[in-house]
Write a structure and sequence with these properties.
29% helix; alpha/beta; TIM Barrel; 29 strands; Rossmann fold; 3 domains; 697 residues; 9-stranded parallel sheet
Length: 697
């Protein structure tokens, strides 16, 4: 892939902070004035002042408005918008306007349209109707980006560049001719020679040996299973191709406005499989994320916490921007229910608790037309005299009161390893079971720790693990030698390391590590598995042992395993084909321990096991709280006076329908509650569905 590069003269130190123009936390959303007449735009300014809005994303889907016909540019409305927002004291995250090409472009150049693996063309009429690798689309997107940068480079409202929008959201994998050409070039750069590619892909199997890179195709629809390493490499390539598109637009901006920070809105969630965001993070001046709760999920607040922690992990622990979420209902779920009373505030401050320094929504004003007209907004269809608008204003007040938490960081001594290549590889076809889903175990372990009150970082397998006393690797199917050694070193140092089933199985080329499973972790764990015994749909086994609370039920996966002399069996299968064989094991390693969980435990069994591990690692919560009450702490980086601890802020979020009390006589909570101004000493009561934020120190 050929792309523009960052100018050699570029100095990262000259990039100003994205929130330099803000007094505290950011608050706002996507603003689309082109959808409305001027009298509504003027009313918007009044309402923004009332709500306390200070940051807006502008021009995300404005290409066809700015350039309705090729070369015919209309800047007047955007010039006026930028000037008015600056006059109102509002900063702008200005988009490149490239998120959806205008109809004239796809009519003149239909070759830029993306394709599915079966050859289906994805046409104009929605959004993101472009192939990121096509040179014609790239040329037009760079031209529009250049125009935006040159016109607004010195505008005082410009705080941040917002590149495109949710890159890869609708087309994470493109199988067009342009993508095929780019894939072949990517393979040449990765492998250098076709012999190296043949070795990596194992092409001696099924007579797949290539004589030239020119013979290689993306994994299109084929008579039977495509080569698994071809599929895995296409996943890697596709993530890189989307990132390359972002970098090309970013570098164009840097050439013109090197002082302005650049980002794009990620979708770091449990269902965004297409992009390896750990590889994206170094390319962003600040990490930004979009997250939407699922109305049908009674534990959607746990999924929200997961997404926020994953975003913080991608950001390397730095504060980040919540670029989009919803004030109430969305438009794209099967049943789009409005949020409950208090849920807007609670959702927003949950993100802040876990590291967000800005709370933004899609969108400012609810559209009257288009595909997202039933998606909620800060200003609803029913207008100002609504509970929703009053909640928005209340949120603005709350964020103003919490401005002092800006720049503070979350600390954690527990980590879950999240690995996109393992996600891609573990869900390939022709595996022991097609029912395995990578995120199943990631989220299950996250939920078990969340219910224990443990704040958890999300890290890559190669991350620095020295600060963690508990490290969990759920279904880390694919691992390099270096990353396996990194995990083992954590146990040697004193951490409790937990590895689950179908981990360490293959190397980076999806080649099985021979000698028995779990391959790369076999020696660390003291476990050797002969065969996998996946369970049939609806089939369960019982697992017994104190580590799982005495008895638990398991499904999906079992293994025929043997343990080394220095490994302990902590739980065994009670019945089934593998009765009396180990299901959970533990081995002392250096100063720490390595656990193996060879089956999918039910919720109760996993909760009990998590409790055992939390106790062993000593990573329990600082504050005791009732079930359903979430406690998270952010810490100031500022050096405190001698003899004092740094200032911190304790967020207490009550997700239950009853008031709850945090703190006891033996473990009191003391400080100032920022939302009410109340001085707290001893216990803190949080109303049903409410939030309290305590400044400590």
């Amino acid at each position: 892939m050929r792309r523009r590069t960052t100018p050699e003269s570029f100095d990262p130190a000259q990039v100003r902070p994205w929130n330099a123009g803000l007094a505290g936390l950011g608050f706002g959303g996507d603003y689309n004035p082109e959808q409305w007449p001027d009298d509504v735009r003027l009313e918007d300014l009044e309402l923004m002042r009332e709500a306390g809005v200070n940051l807006l994303s502008v021009a995300i889907f404005s290409w066809a408005t700015i350039e309705p016909r090729e070369g015919e540019l209309d800047w007047a409305w955007l010039d006026t918008t930028m000037d008015r927002l600056h006059g109102a004291g509002i900063q702008v995250a200005l988009a490149t306007a490239t998120a959806s090409p205008p109809p004239w472009l796809t009519r003149e150049h239909p070759e830029i349209l993306p394709r599915l693996a079966d050859g289906t063309v994805l046409h104009q009429g929605g959004r993101q109707s472009y192939a990121v690798t096509h040179p014609v689309h790239r040329e037009y997107a760079l031209r529009m980006t250049t125009r935006m940068a040159e016109r607004y480079r010195d505008h005082p409202a410009l705080a941040l560049w917002h590149v495109d929008n949710e890159i890869g959201c609708h087309v994470p994998r493109d199988y067009s001719a342009a993508a095929a050409d780019a894939f072949r070039q990517w393979l040449r750069e990765r492998y250098t020679t076709v012999d190296a590619l043949n070795d990596a892909w194992g092409t001696a199997f099924w007579s797949q040996r290539y004589g030239s890179f020119d013979d290689v195709l993306p994994p299109l629809v084929a008579p039977t299973y495509a080569n698994p390493t071809q599929q895995l490499d296409f996943d890697r390539f596709s993530s890189d191709a989307l990132l390359d598109y972002y970098r090309d637009l970013r570098d164009t901006l840097r050439q013109i406005t090197p002082h302005v920070p650049v980002t794009t809105n990620l979708m770091a969630t449990s269902h965004t499989k297409g992009m390896d965001y750990f590889s994206w993070a170094p390319e962003l001046d600040v990490v930004a994320n979009d997250h939407y709760t699922a109305a049908a999920d009674p534990e959607r607040h746990v999924d929200l916490a997961f997404s926020a922690d994953l975003t913080r992990g991608i950001a390397g622990g730095d504060p980040w921007i919540l670029m989009e979420h919803s004030t109430s209902a969305v438009n794209w779920q099967p049943r789009n229910r409005a949020k409950l009373p208090g849920e807007l505030l609670r959702n927003s401050l949950q993100h802040v608790a876990r590291g967000a320094d800005s709370v933004m929504f899609f969108q400012w004003r609810q559209s009257r037309a288009g595909a997202e007209k039933y998606h909620s907004a800060m200003v609803p269809h029913a207008g100002r005299d609504t509970d929703l608008w009053r909640d928005v204003v209340g949120l603005g007040d709350a964020l103003e009161a919490l401005g002092e938490v800006r720049g503070s960081r979350v600390r954690s001594r527990a980590a879950i390893v999240v690995d996109w290549p393992s996600w891609w590889g573990s869900e390939l076809d022709s595996h022991p079971t097609q029912a395995l889903r990578y995120m199943d175990q990631v989220q299950a372990w996250y939920g078990a720790l969340w219910r224990r009150g443990v704040t958890t970082d999300m890290v890559s397998p190669g991350a620095d693990l020295d600060g963690y006393d508990l490290v969990v690797l759920p279904t880390t199917y694919l691992v390099t030698d270096a990353d396996a050694a990194n995990v083992a070193a954590a146990a040697q140092r004193g951490a409790t390391v937990v590895v689950t089933y179908f981990s360490g199985i293959v190397d980076e080329h999806d080649h099985v590590r021979l000698g028995g499973y779990p391959g790369a972790f076999r020696d660390l764990l003291g476990v050797r598995t002969e065969e996998f015994y996946p369970l049939q749909d609806g089939e369960t086994v019982h697992v017994v042992g104190e580590a799982v609370g005495g008895a638990a039920t398991a499904d999906l996966w079992t293994e025929k395993s043997h343990v080394a002399d220095d490994a302990e069996v902590m739980a065994s299968y009670q019945d089934g084909a593998l009765a009396d064989r180990p299901a959970v094991t533990r081995r002392a390693v250096g100063q720490g321990h390595a656990w193996y969980v060879a089956t999918r435990l039910d919720r109760e069994g996993l909760d009990d096991l998590a409790g055992t591990l939390v106790a062993e690692a000593g990573v329990g919560p600082e504050f005791s709280a009732p079930a359903g009450v979430e406690v998270v702490r952010r810490w100031s980086d500022a050096a405190p006076p001698a003899g004092q601890e740094p200032t911190s802020w304790v967020f207490v979020l009550n997700h239950t329908e009853e008031s709850a009390t945090v703190g006891t006589e033996a473990a009191p909570v003391t400080g100032t509650e920022l939302l009410t101004g109340e001085r707290v000493s001893g216990t803190l009561t949080v109303p049903a569905g409410g939030v309290r934020v305590l400044r400590v120190g």
